[in-house]
């Protein structure tokens, strides 16, 4: 489903994330139940969560909008792909963007950086997170395509 069609059909039941995302990967659209990680310049917890079966979920990452270090690179993107995640949205940076762009993944991020993150495991999972004017609640739904990112409390597919 196109996000524009979802807005037309469901109006106030969908919410638009108003960040200027960079879109990477061969998967130009994806949708699914939301899973969340909140971490700042530390991707150890994100990597751990992506090693679990994704079962078609979309990982939403609140990295505080940091562009200093990347929370996702090509190695973790392969984990995302191989474990059945529908895609990932990161309020933060990624690296290895050329490699990720050639992979069968859907990655939306706000910036790129060649620097890797620390690996201390700081952060939280499975909590509501907010950025871009919307709240991403675990178990709610997200819809992503070239026009943007929408959330809904229920599955609209």
TrEMBL record:
It catalyses: oxaloacetate + H(+) = pyruvate + CO2; 4-hydroxy-4-methyl-2-oxoglutarate = 2 pyruvate. Its EC number is 4.1.1.112, 4.1.3.17. Substrate binds at residues 73-76, 95. InterPro entries: RraA (IPR010203), RraA/RraA-like (IPR005493), RraA/RraA-like_sf (IPR036704). Keywords: Lyase, Magnesium, Metal-binding. Its cofactor is Mg(2+); a divalent metal cation. The keyword Magnesium applies. Pfam families: RraA-like. Mg(2+) binds at residue 96. One of its GO terms (molecular function) is ribonuclease inhibitor activity. One of its GO terms (biological process) is regulation of RNA metabolic process. Catalyzes the aldol cleavage of 4-hydroxy-4-methyl-2-oxoglutarate (HMG) into 2 molecules of pyruvate. Also contains a secondary oxaloacetate (OAA) decarboxylase activity due to the common pyruvate enolate transition state formed following C-C bond cleavage in the retro-aldol and decarboxylation reactions. Homotrimer. Belongs to the class II aldolase/RraA-like family. This is 4-hydroxy-4-methyl-2-oxoglutarate aldolase. It comes from Rhizobium acidisoli.
């Amino acid at each position: 489903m196109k996000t524009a069609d979802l807005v037309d059909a469901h109006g106030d039941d969908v919410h638009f994330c108003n960040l200027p995302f960079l879109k990477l990967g061969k998967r130009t659209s994806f949708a699914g139940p939301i899973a969340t990680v909140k971490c700042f310049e530390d991707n150890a917890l994100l990597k751990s969560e992506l090693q679990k079966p994704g079962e078609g979920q979309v990982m939403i990452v609140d990295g505080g909008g940091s562009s200093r270090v990347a929370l996702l690179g090509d190695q973790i993107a392969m984990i995302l792909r191989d474990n059945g995640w529908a895609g990932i949205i990161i309020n933060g940076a990624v690296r290895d963007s050329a490699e990720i762009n050639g992979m069968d993944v859907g990655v939306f991020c706000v910036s790129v950086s060649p620097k890797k993150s620390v690996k201390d495991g700081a952060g939280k999972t499975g909590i509501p997170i907010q950025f871009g004017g919307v709240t991403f609640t675990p178990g709610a739904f997200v819809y992503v395509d070239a026009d943007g990112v929408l959330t809904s409390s229920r599955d609209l597919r």
